[in-house]
Automatic annotation (TrEMBL):
Residue spans crossing the bilayer: 581-613, 696-725
Organism for this UniProt entry: Arachis hypogaea (Peanut)
Main localization category: membrane
Coiled-coil region(s): none
Record keywords: Calcium, Membrane, Repeat, Transmembrane, Transmembrane helix
Compartment list: Membrane
Protein name in UniProt: C2 domain-containing protein
Membrane topology category: Multi-pass membrane protein
Keyword Signal attached: no
Domain of life, per lineage: Eukaryota
A Pfam family: C2
Annotated CDD domains: C2B_MCTP_PRT_plant, C2C_MCTP_PRT_plant, C2D_MCTP_PRT_plant
Residue ranges constituting the C2 domain according to the UniProt record: 1-122, 162-285, 328-451
Length: 753
């Protein structure tokens, strides 16, 4: 588990919440029933109006429960704790076996890291407290906080209305993502692959399958029974290895039919794990004829003569298997633990609570929300307990992660629990998500802040409430952090043997599916819709809104350059004479002392950085609806963004969206064409496509070479600068001669259809 083993949390980021804990361990020597000579005992813990009970154990006089009950101190309305032992009856009222009473004023207090309180045996009393009865029960009762080890598995009194499997779905839990590997299969060649029709030469290719992942090589260029491919197939595999690798050699008969000629199934444990780029040994494998082996005589004949395939297979330990978007990565370590470096810090997150949540479902004819929070960083996922039926839940749970790279992101999501009853088909609803980049946090500082929970719905963006967090990033070595800023973002194998963009997208999708499947099998499960939302599974899908947002992001980047250009234009046109005179003086100084040019530039950036320090953000940034272009988005664009793939909308709607996409693409096409035209005009300067223009340019180039050779560079720079900074009285409103000459150069647009 990647967090919390070596570093103990002080639990100082959250408000301490006190609970009365009751651990029911076991009982002995319980009296048998009068009719059955046995009993089905269970324990009922009662504190005021709150009652909790263990499961009943059939026909046991010495039962064991080992269950913990937790009662919030804020809701305690009694000074007496009663623990009853009862015998469950099929019909009628359950039999009373005995009880134990505790005075809450005498209950000890325990705060970790104190050792757990040892349970003790207590003799059962009768109902009236007049005397002891047969039977003993082992109990431990103490007052503790949410930092107690028993907190996550305890039955909480404020969730007493939950029943059945829903009891497990409200508990806090820590999950660990499965260890993921890239499985590289290099299909080199095959021998003696005989097609079913011996009168034709086969068109052979290799198909590999691991679980639901299916990949295939290209068809061998030459028709032969000894094909050569030398092509890689890359899959995602997870420990413990449950799937096997299936390799088939198939013959492409026609576009709609392929025939399997040979097959082999190999377990994952057979393959070598490599940590670097050194090649592993290749092996020959015998192929089983597909659908073969009905008759023993045929099987003996097959063993004498078999097709073979030459493979080089390994599990890649030097890569980081990406299961989340590269923009929001929370981990960059390679798969092999031997290649991990020491952690550079500790991340502590206190999930305090939420405010102003909106009702997510109807319960008893009124709105209700049963909220829980999920945090994901590195391989470790945490899930808080579910707070029932409140719009302002208070979790006050604190978690710790080891940090190996500060340029990573922790993601926190809030969800509405829809699995408190027997409806297993329900999906937990999204309430919102928060991302915090660790590099934006100052070291050893506690950030306590409320983050808006924003969700994009088909009818628009909506604020669902606010999430209150306390975050602290503690650095172990400042020198190590500065050193990491100069290191590659990913392990070196990503640069020595990189994947293509399509491979990265496909492998990420497969890895996300594996993580969602494995976490969905935990108890309680972290459900697929939660994992997909946290991992941004749909971030690659087309969205008109996202396209607009990215376009305006680019425009904002160029806005600084445009502003500088406008300011320089004002200087050149003497809009502000004082600024123009100062620029002239600075220019003359730099011409006279050119060695000051670069120091002046870097000193200028130094002072800008110091000036901007006053305006630095005081809290980590949160979701920005304006930046996301979510405030003024058209309803149809949102409907398109939430559409399934492939589309499920009507033909008329799809036709309208296609026409809109064509109009947008037409404008992009025009801009790309204009850029290509300028580049081709630049090429045509020396291509002699326009002989007169090229002649003029080469004569100009020769004259310029002679003049520049004879003239000192300082004089050339001085004349050029003064020419561009000349007074408007010496300017013409007509375009300059070089601009006119360049615009007259030919491009290849007249050769396009």
């Amino acid at each position: 588990m990647s967090g919390g083993e070596r570093f103990s949390s002080t639990y100082d980021l959250v408000e301490q919440m006190f609970y009365l804990y009751v651990r029911v361990v076991k009982a002995k020597d319980l009296p048998p029933g009068t009719l059955t000579s046995s009993c089905d005992p269970y324990v009922e813990v009662k504190l005021g109006n709150y009652k909790g009970r263990t499961k009943h154990i059939e026909k046991k006089l010495n039962p064991e429960w080992n269950q913990v009950f937790a009662f919030s101190k804020d809701r305690i309305q009694s000074s007496i704790l009663e623990v009853f032992v009862k015998d469950k009856e099929m019909l009628g009222r359950d039999d009373y076996l005995g009880r134990v009473i505790f005075d809450l004023n005498e209950v000890p207090t325990r705060v970790p890291p104190d050792s757990p309180l040892a349970p003790q045996w207590y003799r059962l009393e009768d109902r009236r407290g007049d005397g002891k009865v047969r039977g003993d029960i082992m109990l431990a009762v103490w007052m503790g906080t949410q930092a107690d080890e028993a907190f996550s598995d305890a039955w909480h009194a404020d969730a007493a209305s939950v029943y059945g499997e829903g009891v497990f779905n409200i508990r806090s839990k820590v999950y660990v993502s499965p260890k993921l590997w890239y499985l590289r299969v290099n299909a080199i060649e095959a021998q003696d692959v005989i097609p079913s029709d011996r009168n034709r030469l086969p068109e052979l290719f290799v198909k590999g399958q691991v679980g639901n992942q299916v990949l295939r090589t290209r068809i061998c260029p030459t028709r032969t029974t000894t094909p050569v491919w030398n092509e890689d197939l890359v899959f995602v595999a997870a420990e413990p290895f449950e799937e096997q690798l299936t390799i088939t050699v198939e013959d492409h008969l026609h576009p709609t039919k392929d025939e399997v000629l040979g097959k082999i199934t190999l377990p994952m444990t057979l393959f070598e794990k490599r940590l670097d780029h050194r090649p592993v040994h290749s092996r020959w494998f015998n192929l089983e004829k597909y659908g073969f082996g009905m008759l023993e005589a045929d099987r003996r004949k097959e063993l004498k003569f078999s097709s073979r395939i030459h493979l080089r297979i390994c599990l890649e330990g030097g890569y980081h298997v990406m299961d989340e978007s590269t923009m929001y990565m929370s981990d960059q370590r390679p798969t092999a633990r031997q290649l991990w470096k020491q952690p550079i810090g500790i991340l502590e997150v206190g999930i305090l609570g939420a405010q102003g949540l909106l009702p997510m479902k109807m319960k008893d004819s009124r709105g209700s929300t049963d909220a829980y929070c999920v945090a994901k960083y590195s391989q470790k996922w945490v899930r808080t307990r579910t707070i029932l039926d409140t719009f302002s839940p208070k979790w006050n749970e604190q978690y710790t992660w080891e940090v190996y790279d500060p340029c990573t992101v922790i993601t926190l999501g809030v969800f509405d629990n829809c699995h408190l009853g027997s409806n297993a088909a329900a999906r937990d609803s999204r309430i919102g998500k928060v991302r915090i980049r660790l590099s934006t946090l100052e070291a050893n500082r506690i950030y306590t802040h409320s983050y808006p929970l924003l969700v994009l719905h088909p009818h628009g963006v909506k604020k669902m409430g606010e999430l209150q967090l306390a975050v602290r990033f503690t650095t172990l070595s400042l020198a190590n952090i500065f050193h990491i800023y100069g290191q590659p973002l990913l392990p070196k194998m990503h640069y020595l043997h990189p994947f293509t963009v399509n491979q990265v997208d496909n492998l990420r999708y497969q890895a996300m599916n594996i993580v969602a499947t494995r976490l969905g099998r935990a108890e309680p499960p972290l459900r697929k819709e939660v994992v997909e939302y946290m991992l941004d599974v749909d971030s690659h899908m087309w969205s008109m809104r996202r396209s607009k947002a990215n376009f305006f992001r680019i425009m904002s980047l160029f806005s600084g350059m445009i502003t500088m250009g406008q300011w320089f234009n004002q200087v050149c046109h003497w809009k502000n004479p004082i600024s123009s005179v100062l620029v002239h003086i600075l220019f003359l100084i730099l011409i006279w002392y050119p060695e000051l040019m670069l120091p002046t530039l870097f000193l200028y950036m130094f002072f800008i950085g110091l000036w901007n320090y006053r305006f630095r953000p005081r809290n980590p940034p949160h979701m920005d609806t304006k930046l996301s272009w979510a405030e003024a988005v058209h309803p149809d664009e949102l409907d398109e963004e939430f559409d399934t793939f492939p589309t499920s909308r009507s033909h008329d709607v799809v036709r309208m969206r296609y026409d809109r996409l064509r109009s947008v693409a037409g404008r992009i096409q025009t801009v790309v064409g204009d850029i290509a035209t300028q580049g081709e005009r630049l090429q045509s300067l020396l291509s002699w496509r326009d002989t007169r223009a090229t002649s003029l340019f080469i004569v100009f180039s020769f004259c310029s070479a002679v003049v520049l050779y004879a003239t000192p560079p300082r004089v050339v720079a001085l004349v050029t600068g003064l020419y561009y900074l000349r007074h408007p009285r010496f300017r013409s409103k007509l375009p300059s001669v070089p601009s006119n000459f360049f615009k007259r150069l030919p491009a290849r647009t007249d050769s396009m259809l």
